Amino acid sequence: MSILLWLVIGALVGAVAGMIMGEALGLFGNIVVGVVGAFLGGLLFSHGDINNSPLTIGTFSVSLVGAIVLLGIVNLFRRGSLR
C-alpha cells in the first residue's frame, strides 16, 4: 500500500475512532492514531501482517478496533479512566 493511502486511511480511521471515543484530535492526531492503531490492531488480531492485506471492511475494522484500544490506553494514562 502506498504511503499516501496509509495517511488517508489512517486519517479516516483516526477520525472515526476519535468520534467513538469522544476525542477531538485534529488531522495530524487522526493520522497518528489511525496508523498506530492499524499497527496495534494488526498485532492483536493478525499477528502483525495486516499491512500486507488489501483494504477491506475486515482490515478497516481491525484498524478501527486498534485505534479505539490505543485511545482507550491513552485516556487511561492521561485521565485515569477510559472515557
Description:
By secondary structure, this protein is an all-alpha fold. It has three helices and no strands. The longest helix has 23 residues, at 57-79. The termini are far apart.
Number of DSSP helical runs: 3
What is the overall silhouette? globular
Q: Unreliable runs, pLDDT <50, ≥5 residues?
A: none
Structural class: mainly alpha
The residue-averaged pLDDT reads 84
Taking all Cα atoms into account, the compactness measure Rg is 12 Å
Number of strands: 0
Strand content: under 5%
* Strand and helix order: HHH
User: Percentage of helical residues?
Assistant: over 70%
**Largest beta sheet, briefly?**
none
The separation of the N and C termini measures 33 Å
Key phrases:
83 residues, mainly alpha, 75% helix
Task: Briefly say what this structure is.
It is built from three helices and no strands. Helix 1 (3-21) packs across helix 3 (57-79).
Task: Please outline the helices and strands.
Layout: H1 3-21, H2 26-45, H3 57-79
Helix pairs in contact: 1-2, 1-3, 2-3
